[in-house]
Design a protein that fits this description.
Elements lengths: L1 H12 L2 H26 L5 H15 L7 H9 L13 H18 L6 H21 L5 H6 L1 H19 L4 H12 L11
């Protein structure tokens, strides 16, 4: 639990560009969950989420880029699945992606200064829920913490926090962050990219 609290505390201390870059990197890891959900259920075309995340990366790489994030927010909010309309588990990770995308845009717009913490918690919470759902039985919190997916999630967020302290903001750092997010070829819950 200590590591988890420690991460949330460190994320809470991120500001501006670093907080948004942290959120975008976690979103990059989560996005395949939304894509797979759309593919399986034919709920929506997931391309809008990719476009919006690309806009966030563009804004991070070129902060003077003119992007209408209010319009982006509207477009992604139209594509949030309603859990009561689906009977498959995939709707929950898809909702996590949608909520994380909204939180990141609100962070960019200065409307939610804790947006990065929201994304961090949704990503970790999504991994925890997936571990429980796939085990088929209730697990102790220690068992969840020891699970390889949760260990990977915590390690990734810690590595990301270190990278953001080391590297200056800009396009080169964005490339490194994207590489970190996709290096394993899997989403945060282990779905192949």
């Amino acid at each position: 639990m200590n590591k988890k609290l420690n991460i949330f505390q460190q994320v809470r201390e991120l500001e501006g560009w670093a907080a948004i870059a942290f959120s975008a990197t976690l979103l990059e890891r989560m996005l395949p969950n939304y894509n797979l959900f759309c593919e399986v259920t034919e709920f929506a075309d997931p391309a809008q989420y990719r476009k919006t995340l690309n806009s966030i990366w563009e804004w991070l790489a070129v902060p003077k880029a003119k992007i209408n994030f209010s319009a982006q927010l509207e477009k992604i909010e139209e594509l949030v699945p309603d859990a009561s309309n689906f009977d498959n588990y995939g709707v929950y990770p898809a909702i996590d992606v949608a909520m994380s995308m909204s939180a990141t845009i609100l962070l960019i717009q200065g409307e939610d200064p804790q947006g990065a913490v929201v994304v961090s918690k949704l990503s970790q919470g999504g991994v925890e829920a997936f571990i429980e759902a796939s085990s088929g039985e209730p697990l102790e919190s220690q068992e969840i913490k020891q699970h390889p997916l949760m260990q990977w999630e915590i390690e990734t967020q810690q590595e990301l926090l270190l990278l953001l302290k080391e590297y200056p903001k800009g396009a080169e750092t964005c490339k490194k962050l994207k590489a970190l997010a996709t290096a394993e070829g899997m989403s945060n819950i282990g779905i192949e990219i």
